[in-house]
Recover the amino acids of this structure.
């Protein structure tokens, strides 16, 4: 039978199932995938991890891991985009659900309804020395929250000319640095400055993916066109033109450690940079999993916590690599587009980019183009037939059929299908 409890809980699809079947007093469990890690923050021995499958808290002493999602917490959506710790308070940004304030006793959600501002889509959060929260939005500029009042800075009332902010940082003098597309802004005491190819020759940034401040108050910007440094007077660029070991000039994520090394993501490698020396960690020369870096956080023990796109969380203590778990299930993706339950109780899930998932007796099996003859991993729909077969619609590779052992694919060139987009 086709499942009828499909629930849209974020801008992506996820499914919530009963944990003990369809009993009279069911408990809801939200099964997600946290392999896309967007941000990391430290609160004592606890590390808060923002993922596309919810919020995760990991204790580095006990390794106790707690998964928060829409079923077991007041998290408004599972797509957590950013996170910041301010003393005993954790601030959580979501993509579509607003801002969440977590204290020991309370969870409070701020959104467009109770603030009057469109703060639903949050990209980054930083806190200044006065305790003001600075919040970067995807389309509505910069927000300041002083714990009582909200202020919005945008292209209509400030020196910002781009309301799509991608990264934030506060330097050692309290200046706010704002990364956008092809532009960087700074803001302090109501004075705005902008930096772009229009006023800085050769500043071809692309998207500014991350900002870090070193001990000397130099500003470092990871961008689509390399790593840039601003020493408050001059700009320098580090990319493929001057470092031929790089496979790409694009850099994602940046952090500075206590030995003045800059850690950056570049392509599917992790870079360690100081002075003019760049060391790359790859899947060929280390245990680095060869994933795209989203975020790098360096803790008070100088350990590196790296959030990746597709390989979850990676921890490097400068000698050993570990891979803390950020998923509460074996789902290959939280982006589910369809589901059905077959007559024998087997659950089948179609994912947007992770293939087909079979759950039987709490065992997970994933079928993808790497381990089966399914035509594509980007699926669109599911149906079952009277013989127990599963029909799988794909975004662009036709219709696949699986009878439990054999796969058959129907496309426009071998059937009467008029379109391969099912």
């Amino acid at each position: 039978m086709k499942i009828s409890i499909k629930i849209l809980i974020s801008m992506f699809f996820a499914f919530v199932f009963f944990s003990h079947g369809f009993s009279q007093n069911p408990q809801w469990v939200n099964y997600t995938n946290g392999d896309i890690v967007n941000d990391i923050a430290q609160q004592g021995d606890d590390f808060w991890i923002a993922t596309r499958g919810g919020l995760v808290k990991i204790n580095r002493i006990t390794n106790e891991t707690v998964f928060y999602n829409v079923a077991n917490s007041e998290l408004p959506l599972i797509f957590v985009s950013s996170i910041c710790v301010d003393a005993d308070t954790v601030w959580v940004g979501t993509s579509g659900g607003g801002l969440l304030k977590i204290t020991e006793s309370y969870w409070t959600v701020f959104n467009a309804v109770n603030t009057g501002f469109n703060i639903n889509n949050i990209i980054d959060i930083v806190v200044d020395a006065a305790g003001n929260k600075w919040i970067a939005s995807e389309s509505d500029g910069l927000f300041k929250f002083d714990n009582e009042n909200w202020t919005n800075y945008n292209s209509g009332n400030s020196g910002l000319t781009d309301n799509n902010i991608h990264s934030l940082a506060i330097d050692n003098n309290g200046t706010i640095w704002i990364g956008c597309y092809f532009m960087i802004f700074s803001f302090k005491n109501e004075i705005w400055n902008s930096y772009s190819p229009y006023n800085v020759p050769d500043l071809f940034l692309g998207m500014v993916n991350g900002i870090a401040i070193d001990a000397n108050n130099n500003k470092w910007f990871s961008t689509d066109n390399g790593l840039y440094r601003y020493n408050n007077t001059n700009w320098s660029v580090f990319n493929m033109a001057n470092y031929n070991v790089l496979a790409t000039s694009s850099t994602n994520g940046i952090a500075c450690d206590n030995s003045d090394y800059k850690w950056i993501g570049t392509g599917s490698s992790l870079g360690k940079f100081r002075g003019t020396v760049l060391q790359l960690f790859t899947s060929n020369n280390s245990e680095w999993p060869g994933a795209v870096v989203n975020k790098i956080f360096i803790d008070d023990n100088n350990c590196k916590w790296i959030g990746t796109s597709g390989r979850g969380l990676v921890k490097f203590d400068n000698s050993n690599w570990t891979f803390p778990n950020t998923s509460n299930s074996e789902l290959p993706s939280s982006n589910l587009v369809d589901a059905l339950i077959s007559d024998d109780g087997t659950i089948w899930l179609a994912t947007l980019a992770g293939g087909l998932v079979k759950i039987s007796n709490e065992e997970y099996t994933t079928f993808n183009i790497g381990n089966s003859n399914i035509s594509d991993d980007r699926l669109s729909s599911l149906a079952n037939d009277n013989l127990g077969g599963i029909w799988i619609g794909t975004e662009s590779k036709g219709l696949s059929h699986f009878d439990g052992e054999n796969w058959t694919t129907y496309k426009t060139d071998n059937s009467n299908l008029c379109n391969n987009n099912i």
In short: The first helix runs from residue 112 to 115.
